[in-house]
Write a structure and sequence with these properties.
Elements lengths: L5 H19 L3 H17 L2 H16 L4 H7 L3 H16 L7 E6 L5 E8 L2 E6 L3 H13 L3 E5 L5 H17 L7 E3 L6 H7 L7 E5 L2 H10 L12 E5 L5 H13 L8 E7 H17 L3 E4 L1 H8 L6 E3 L13 E7 L2 H11 L4 E5 L3 H10 L4 E4 L19 E2 L7 E2 L6 E8 L7
Parallel strand pairs: 3-4, 3-6, 4-5, 7-8, 7-12, 8-11, 9-10, 9-11, 12-13
Antiparallel strand pairs: 1-2, 2-16, 14-15
Helix pairs in contact: 2-5, 2-7, 3-7, 5-6, 6-7, 10-11
Length: 425
């Protein structure tokens, strides 16, 4: 552990490139065999992983790691079961490799088509998220890609244990264990080395906070998926069903506040604020949520004697809280809500709660985000929930992928042209 150098990282890149050529030819049955093996090991061989994770967790807690990151770091038997379920679902998904996207016959007799192919090697740099180790490997393998994984120092033991299970799954299925490479040294200088390895890595996926994502975007020599920063709004329209609004807002904030699709700001139409805001606030504060309110929201909630309602500051708008804190603002119109989201949103997940079809349609049409909801919680923005099996990340950019990235987002395509002796005049 913790012995890789910059030269070693390049060696991992070479091994990954060699492995990617083998994986591109791997049959669907062989890929699924690996995934089914891994799903089983995540259920039956949990002890070593959980022990390693507890060591990581206790050390990170002693060092004062933020509560939201501690939650993402923690593995339990149930969470490992959930990871096993996701890998099982990936094994059941159609294999995208070899899919013919479209075919055309040209006037000169040439038949052209586009055929889906692997990207090659996918690298990922991530923080305090051991589930990413399994998710990225599973999707990369099914899409015919090798992967190079560099997790954070907070999860070095957890990731080492998980990679051991992955390699066992590969070996037992007769597939090269070089399909996964793991950087077991948390030295930040090795991140710099990975970012310059464009001769080996075809796509880089950062998973972590805003500073990591920005650093990768600014320094990577290869294409990188930037995103995952979720400043998520839920707008409660004047035509909202208030019982539905209370339930959705509570779920979007409280179910798991430390993830990127959790609600950050509630926008409430002025026409229903007096009736609806106290109902939502009661449920939120009852679950320990601290509300940062604009003046109008604060005046309504202070009448209800809610001690967890505090004045909002300008920094609260456009802030990803990742904790039991939510900003609240009263708006006079759908137009104002759209303007607020356009100014402060991150392009991740945005929701409207309304029974007005025209308002819902306008919201869907005008909000520029990877996922836009009507009458549902933003916590559904997830590869597994979208039927993708799992995800390597959530992209808030527009090229080459947007939203949860599943199997097809880990592929490219090649043009295939079949002729009968044609030459170009």
């Amino acid at each position: 552990m913790m012995n890789k150098t910059a030269e070693d990282i390049k060696a991992l890149g070479k091994l990954s490139r060699q492995a990617s050529r083998k994986l591109a030819r791997l049959s669907t049955d062989d890929k699924n065999h690996v995934l089914i093996n891994l799903s089983g090991f995540l259920r039956t061989e949990q002890e070593a992983v959980l022990l390693a994770n507890q060591e990581d967790y206790q050390e990170a807690k002693a060092e004062g790691l933020d509560e939201s990151l501690l939650d993402r770091l923690l593995l339990t038997s149930d969470r490992l079961e959930g990871m096993a379920d996701e890998i099982q679902r990936v094994s059941e998904l159609p294999d995208p490799i070899g899919e013919v996207i479209e075919t055309s016959s040209l006037p000169n007799g040439l038949v052209t088509s586009r055929r889906r192919v692997p990207l090659g090697v996918v690298g990922s740099i991530y923080e305090a998220r051991p589930n990413v180790t399994v998710d990225i490997f599973g999707l990369c393998l099914k899409a015919g890609n090798a992967c190079i994984l560099r997790g954070g120092k907070e999860t070095i033991r957890s990731n080492t244990a998980l990679v051991a299970l992955i390699r066992k799954a590969l070996i037992d299925a007769g597939v090269t264990e070089d399909a996964v490479q793991f950087v077991d040294n948390p030295d930040r200088s090795l991140v710099d080395a990975m970012l310059k390895m464009d001769e080996y890595i075809d796509l880089l996926v950062p998973r972590g906070g805003a500073s990591l994502v920005r650093f990768v975007a600014e320094n990577a020599n290869m294409p990188a998926v930037t995103g995952g920063i979720g400043v998520c709004h839920t707008y409660v329209d004047k035509a909202a069903d208030l019982d539905m609004a209370v339930e959705i807002v509570h779920n979007a904030k409280v179910r798991r506040p430390s993830i990127c699709n959790a609600l950050d700001t509630v926008l409430v139409h002025a026409d229903i604020a007096a009736a609806g805001l106290p109902l939502m606030a009661k449920e939120l504060t009852g679950s320990g949520v601290e509300l940062h309110c604009d003046n109008r929201a604060l005046s309504i909630l202070r009448l209800e004697a809610l001690g967890s309602a505090l004045p909002a500051t300008e920094d609260d708008w456009g802030r990803e809280f990742l904790s039991l804190i939510a900003a609240v603002k009263v708006v006079d119109s759908l137009e104002e809500a759209l303007g607020h989201i356009d100014t402060y949103g991150s392009g991740h997940s945005e929701a409207i709660i309304t029974e007005d079809d025209a308002a819902a349609t306008r919201f869907l049409d005008e909000v520029d985000a990877a996922a836009v909801y009507v009458n549902a919680s933003t916590q559904f923005t997830d590869g597994g929930q979208f039927g993708l099996g799992a995800e390597v990340g959530i992209s808030t950019q527009k090229f080459h992928a947007r939203g949860p990235m599943g199997l097809k987002e880990l592929t490219s395509y090649k043009w295939v042209i079949v002729g009968k002796g044609q030459t170009r005049p």
